[in-house]
Amino acid sequence: MDPFTLIASGAAAAAAAVVVAPAVLAAAGFTAGGIAAGSYAASMMSAAAVANGGGVAAGSLVATLQAFGAAGIPAAGQAIVGVVGGALGAAARC
Q1: pLDDT for 9-50, tens place per residue?
Q2: Are 60 and 51 in contact (CB under 8 A)?
Q3: Reduced 3-state DSSP string for the chain
Q4: Phi, psi dihedral angles at 35 (to 5 degrees)
Q5: What is the dihedral of CA 54, 57, 61, 65, to 10 degrees?
Q6: CA distance to 16, 44, 87, per residue, from 23 (Å)
Q7: Angle at CA 65, nearest 5°, toward 63 and 67?
Q8: Across-strand partners of 34?
Q9: Are 57 and 63 in contact (CB under 8 A)?
Q10: Which residue(s) pair with 35 in the sheet?
């Protein structure tokens, strides 16, 4: 495969990942109004609370994903999502 096609595929996948990530968070149950009842996010929160003796620890994966769902993904998080999406997109073309 030529390098241009590989780079273009990676760039397209990176952009798509950044655009789709908020919708994926919402679909999982991490919403602006809090964790949606009966969702995958609710299951994660329940497991985290049981593991931590009744509460969800600040800075945990569940807390971070909920913060992103409520306030949006910050620039650094978008960069990480883009890099991962781009790498997966480029790898899929190989």
Answers
A1: 889 999 999 999 999 999 999 999 999 999 999 999 999 999
A2: no
A3: CCHHHHHHHHHHHHHHHHHHHHHHHHHHCEECCEECCCCHHHHHHHHHHHHCCCCCCCCCHHHHHHHHHHHCCCHHHHHHHHHHHHHHHHHHHC
A4: -75, 130
A5: 90
A6: 11, 18, 20
A7: 70
A8: 31
A9: yes
A10: 30
* Whole-model pTM over 0.85: no
pLDDT digit string, tens, across residues 51-88: 999 899 999 999 999 999 999 999 999 999 999 999 99
Q: Are 58 and 22 in contact (CB under 8 A)?
A: no
Token pair of 18, please? 């950044």
Please provide residue 34's backbone torsions phi and psi, each rounded to the nearest 5 degrees: 115, -175
Say which amino acid occupies 60: S
CB within 8 A of 45, min separation 6: which ones? 35, 56, 62, 66
